[in-house]
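Reposting from the mailing list since nobody answered there.

I have sequence plus structure tokens for a pair of proteins and want to know whether others read the tokens the same way I do. The first protein:
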Amino acid sequence: MEAQRTPLHAEHEALGATFTDFAGWRMPLRYSGDLAEHHAVRTAAGLFDLSHMGEIRVVGPGAADALDRALVGDASGIGVGRARYTMICAADGGIMDDLIVYRLAEQEYLVVANAANAPLVTTELTERAAGRRAEVIDAAAEYALIAVQGPAAAATLAPLCAADLPALRYYASQATTVAGRPVLLARTGYTGEEGFELFVAPDDAPSLWTVLLEAGAAHGLVPTGLACRDTLRLEAGMPLHGHELSAAVTPFHAGLGRVVRFDKPDDFVGRAALSAVSVSGPGQVLVGLVGESRRAPRHGYPVLDPETGATLGTITSGAPSPTLGHPIAMAYVLPDHATPGTRLAVDIRGRHEPVTVAELPFYRRPSSSSPATAKAG
């Protein structure tokens, strides 16, 4: 089946993007180069096309109740205009997807799912909402999604936006206009930097993309692709479904047990299994690793005991860190080898390269008070 194209595909072609097929979509991988784009987001701003993400509306007087049952988080506790990071889990506690849930009105929510998982999430939400006064609507065709990320994101948007950007709190959203076009503006992102995400009508996306590029040029903004998005989120310790998150692990394995709300008054799917893991503890836990050589660990590489060579776990994501100047990785390891400062090794093509367990995230933006938890890809 031919990969889908976002409403911005022609703009990416005109900018000379290199493309890749990702989760059924033809997406820009890079424009000027991975390092240049990564550093632009850390020092100025980057413009991302995220229109491959899945959007699902849940509406009706029973919408909050339906989402409370379907998800591990407390959807009914989200204030109108606010958002929350959460997960949808199977009955055995395995992570089916991680999500951001925006409450747009008292009886209306917007659920943003990873592109590859959006059909599954839509089906699961529909089934779990049965018997409740809520309608689940696949709304992906209603939206294109553009992200402006980096220290200059606000400066780029401010002259174009009708909203009071400094007043928009982290993990909040507001219906407003940007360059005269209606948008749902959210202060969220997946880079570890200040930033905003703009949900717009697909027909408005090309002109808005062009306006943002022009407005941001004076601030150093550049178009940015999936390659630098991955190294940015890795530095920020943000998990990616299919790597750190999967049906084989629970939120407690991933160090995200805080998103599970056992204090909700009613039952939710996966509650019993997750409660058991919260008491017994997971068999493996997610850690950060800092490499001591120039060779970077990659997804799937074994993590070893440096003295015995015994396998202790597996790398989930790894790359050279453009910001920090050395290799970094995340991995699942046995709990008794997860203490920061513990020295381990990674089998990189037959050589045992030294690594040290480190606290996540590897990178925090200066003066950052925002939690390093955000949407995936």
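The second protein, same order (residues first, tokens after):
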Amino acid sequence: MADQQGDLRHLETLDRDLARYSTLEMATAYVSRPMVGIGISLVFVLLAGAAALLFFGQDNNSAIVIIAACLGAYMALNIGANDVANNMGPAVGANALSMGGAIAIAVVFESAGALIAGGDVVKTVAKGIIAPQSMGTPEIFVWAMMAALMSAALWVNLATWIGAPVSTTHSVVGGVMGAGIAAAGFGAVNWATMSGIAASWVISPVLGGAIAALFLWLIKSRIIYREDKIAAARRWVPVLVGIMAGVFSAYLALKGLKKIIKIDMPTALMIGAAIGILVWITMMPIIKKQSEGLENRNKSLKILFGVPLVVSAALLSFAHGANDVANAVGPLAAIVQASQSGSFTEAISIPFWVMVIGAFGISFGLFLFGPKLIRMVGGQITKLNPMRAYCVALSAAITVIVASWLGLPVSSTHIAVGAVFGVGFFREWDAERRIKKARLAMPDRTNFAPEERRRRKLVRRSHFMTIIAAWIITVPAAAILSGVIFFLLNAVAG
């Protein structure tokens, strides 16, 4: 008996020790996860420097190019961690994609967009904000681009850490502007371009939010609030998918394929209209078959929007990779050219190895650090389902096309996050409208206290204020940081 009690005590002690070990193992895994990400990132940055040494070769400027390549890789990692969340967040928040599926799709399509269609907007990033001839010497120009790259990367890194989706485009623009002012004074800056960018702070999110709210109103009024939801969905979902196909076709023709073929706005719209009509006709029998046997409730409608939402997220990632890779490699390409030829006023050619650093850096950044911002955009601002997330994705593409037509520089971050806010605020307005309507019929049962009404708000105001504040200070913060870094680099070099 005593032996059995001793064995039981021994087993209990062993269980406790194993439980402690298991807890310790879980804690170690949790603590080490960020360190693993940082370690892999460091290896990637060092590989980018090795690639620069291999492809650029060894001469007097090779050390500068290696450092610039490392900074470009660091910036690309930050773009992946912060910017890509805007495309994948709504689909993940709506449960149309798992986090792993979203990351896999984004990695493939971001890289494809960067390598196949990226590079055209690099010239604007490197040359459109400051006048290169005002820099005086190639050395000054190189230090200015280096400072811009470093400051933008540090600012986006900080924004990701605090959980604020900011515009990486505006971060680079602010960095280039700050370095240009530090190097050559206020006259070096193209203030017409800068004023257009400042205007886009307001135009991008408001336009994105308004378009997303408009489509959500269309879905609610034509499908959700109908007595026979499935019959309404059979009629309207093919139309909505056709609109999505047409918009994305025009978007990719206009923005994503500039490196391969130049397409003007009227031609892009005609391509979009033709593909949109074709997809609309094709989707009618598909949606009819897919909707057979579905119950007449909102949950059934989510099934019909799932696949279009995943496709839209993939297409947005391709277009994002094509356009925003410039934020990582624009200043780097300018540094490579100035170091190689001594010329910094001519058109910039982008070496393939530079584009590869940008493409893979964005993918690694998303894979290692992207989930935090994906969760923020997808679920912490307002609750999304496939219909609402679909409106966000569609709004992002339409807004870019409208802005291109009007000649306005816009931020994909501001558009996507603005669209999420637009959906949330429309839901609040719609809920308030329905409460008022119900109050007329049942005044006693719908008379909520002010505290209860505040609790029922569908958009988190704390996130709203944090994000707006981060947007407002992005350009000046990156500019000030860049100016300080430029003076430090110039002092060390001098």
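Reply #1 (J.P.):
I read it the same way you do. Residues 27-32 have pLDDT under 50 and may be disordered.
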